[in-house]
Specification:
With about 220 residues, the protein is mainly α. About 45% of the residues lie in helices and about 10% in strands.
Length: about 220
């Protein structure tokens, strides 16, 4: 989703938390918030919270995560942790890339099945799509980390999406922006993979790299 369909307005998730805290009158520097994220991630790894991502219920997971980050900021407040979670999607501004709506509309008009896989919880995916102006009806299936409790590039995630769409790998194209997570993950189960390289920072052989979603159309018809 991010950097393929939508252009997120943040480079680090700590920026979102910083915006939320600021809106609540809690003054913490962005650098301090980013450091808190890093320290919380290390602690979450030690207590096996990170490995529970997608396996644990969404609200429970993010509450535990928010408590860890806030504690690293010197804030012990479970209510604030809940408040942060409730406000999170409001402070994430996902803007569609200009060509996305037209390409998806053309694919739907042609009767093709469209699926979306993203390494976040499905409820968060739907919130981001809504914010970006993409209704759920555009996609025949939406797969988040809580679908099978795994993230891309785990082959089970791609196989689950294929099963839900009732299609075979060889008749499917997957487009993503990450070489390891998206491109190689899709290829590992026999899906035709394309790397979308909007920033031109990633390098792959030209036939398998695109810079704009419109470039997939001649590869399909």
């Amino acid at each position: 989703m991010g950097f393929t369909l939508t252009n997120p307005n943040f480079a680090h998730p700590g920026e979102i938390l910083h915006r939320i805290l600021t809106s609540l009158g809690i003054c913490k520097s962005l650098d301090d918030v980013k450091e808190a994220f890093l320290n919380a991630e290390n602690e979450a790894r030690e207590i096996n919270l990170l490995s529970s991502f997608g396996k644990m219920e969404r609200e429970e997971y993010w509450l535990k995560w928010n408590v860890l980050v806030l504690r690293r900021l010197g804030i012990e407040n479970a209510e604030l942790a809940k408040n942060v979670q409730s406000k999170w999607d409001q402070f994430v501004d996902n803007t569609l890339y200009p060509e996305v709506m037209g390409v998806l509309s053309e694919l739907k008009t042609k009767g093709l099945k469209i699926g979306l896989i993203s390494n976040i919880y499905e409820e968060n995916i739907h919130a981001c799509l809504q914010e970006a102006g993409l209704g759920g009806a555009v996609f025949d299936v939406v797969v988040g980390v809580d679908a099978i409790g795994e993230m891309k590039p785990h082959p089970g995630v791609f196989k689950y999406a294929l099963h839900k769409l009732n299609v075979q790998p060889e008749e499917t194209i997957f487009v993503g922006d990450d070489v390891e997570v998206d491109y190689k993950g899709a290829e590992s189960v026999g899906i035709h993979a394309l790397l979308i390289n909007r920033t031109k920072e990633k390098v792959l052989s030209d036939p398998k790299t695109i810079t704009d979603l419109r470039e997939i159309l001649p590869r399909i018809y």
